[in-house]
Design goal:
The chain is of the alpha/beta class. The protein has two domains: 203 residues, Vaccinia Virus protein VP39 (Rossmann fold, 3-Layer(aba) Sandwich), CATH 3.40.50.150; 68 residues, rRNA adenine dimethylase, C-terminal domain (Helicase, Ruva Protein, domain 3). Helices cover 36% and strands 19% of the residues. The protein has twelve helices and eleven strands. The structure holds S-adenosylmethionine. The site of S-adenosylmethionine has 23 residues, from strand 1, helix 3 and strand 3. S-adenosylmethionine binds next to strand 1, helix 3 and strand 3.
Length: 290
């Protein structure tokens, strides 16, 4: 696929529209269309696919997604300074780009894609300061299966490692890994060095692919969150201690009975329990408080 879409180079776009990066908006831009092309391809093949992008900025990834053949890109951008630059891309790809000026944290995603025919995927170089909040929101989507069929997202490497962690990587495994494993299969696809961004961040980034599980592990997300919060808040303690005082549906749970019912040794620590174990604890906690 040609890397030339006839639009000006991104550095020129940023200069022409005076888009000096703002730290408060997590702005680290990608100017290399080969790299954005690689990210877009990780989300592909894109024929017939509508891609939701958060934070298009000057439009590097947006252009790559369109060049890779996305049927449509719906891009939510909070920085009004970027809108004129994005409108130029919109004109170059008639009817294939919809820019939504707004805050991703306030966006109703199902409403956003309500009229879309065919599959929807998420692809974004996320602003680091809100990346985890957005991911948790997408993972907690209800009903399930969610409105997206795949997510390809950029995070700081350290966050990416927590997202894909299992009990085998104890130091990284925690609430985020459980929530991710509960609803998706996640893996790190590749790293992106700081030098790829303008301005360069201090840390390496990673592209993570998350595919919703076809057979969801059934339990209440709210209760799973309560159980993992309690267990990992004191991650060095044994579960018989860390789950003491766990409250579900307004009722305090007896930690020892819960662990026994789930067949999990009371001497285990949170980081030794896999996702299925936490799902079992959440399901039993719900039954015990129903
Ligand atoms: N996609 C561009 C790229 O790869 O070069 C920019 C990525 S930059 C890391 C993050 C983008 O998210 C910025 O354009 C920023 O303005 C935007 N952003 C930050 N907070 C946002 C929010 N709450 N809602 C929507 N966009 C936001």
């Amino acid at each position: 696929m040609s890397r030339d879409d006839g639009l000006p180079p991104l550095r020129d776009v940023v200069q022409a529209h005076d888009l000096a990066a703002k730290k408060s908006l997590g702005q680290n831009f990608l100017f290399d269309l080969n790299l954005t092309g690689r990210i877009a391809r990780a989300c592909g093949p894109l024929d017939d696919v509508t891609v939701v992008e958060v934070g298009p900025g000057p439009g590097g990834l947006t252009r790559a997604l369109l060049m890779e053949g996305a049927k449509k890109v719906i891009a939510v951008e909070r920085d009004e300074r970027c809108l004129a630059a994005l409108a130029e891309i919109e004109r170059a790809y008639p009817d294939r780009l919809k820019i939504v000026a707004g805050d991703a944290l306030e966006t109703n995603w199902r409403e956003l894609v309500a009229d879309v025919q065919g599959p929807v995927r998420l692809c974004a170089n996320l602003p680091y300061n809100i990346g985890t909040v957005l991911l948790v929101n997408w993972l907690e989507s209800d009903p399930w299966p969610p409105w997206y069929e795949r997510m390809v997202l950029m995070f700081q490497r350290e966050v990416a490692e927590r997202i894909v962690a299992s009990p085998a990587e104890r130091a990284d495994y925690g609430r985020l890994g459980v929530l991710t494993g509960w609803r998706t299969k996640a893996r790190i696809l590749f790293d992106v060095p700081p030098s790829a961004f303008t301005p360069p961040p201090k840390v390496t980034s990673s592209i993570v692919e998350l595919t919703p599980r076809s057979t969801p592990l059934a339990c209440s997300g709210k209760i799973l969150t309560a159980v993992t919060a309690s267990a990992f808040n004191q991650r060095r303690k044994m579960l018989r201690q860390s789950l003491k005082g766990l409250s579900v549906n307004g009722k305090t749970i007896d930690a020892l009975s819960l662990l026994k019912a789930a067949g999990i040794a009371e001497t285990k620590r949170a980081e030794e329990v896999d996702v299925e174990g936490f799902v079992a604890l959440a399901r039993l906690a719900e039954e015990m408080t129903a």
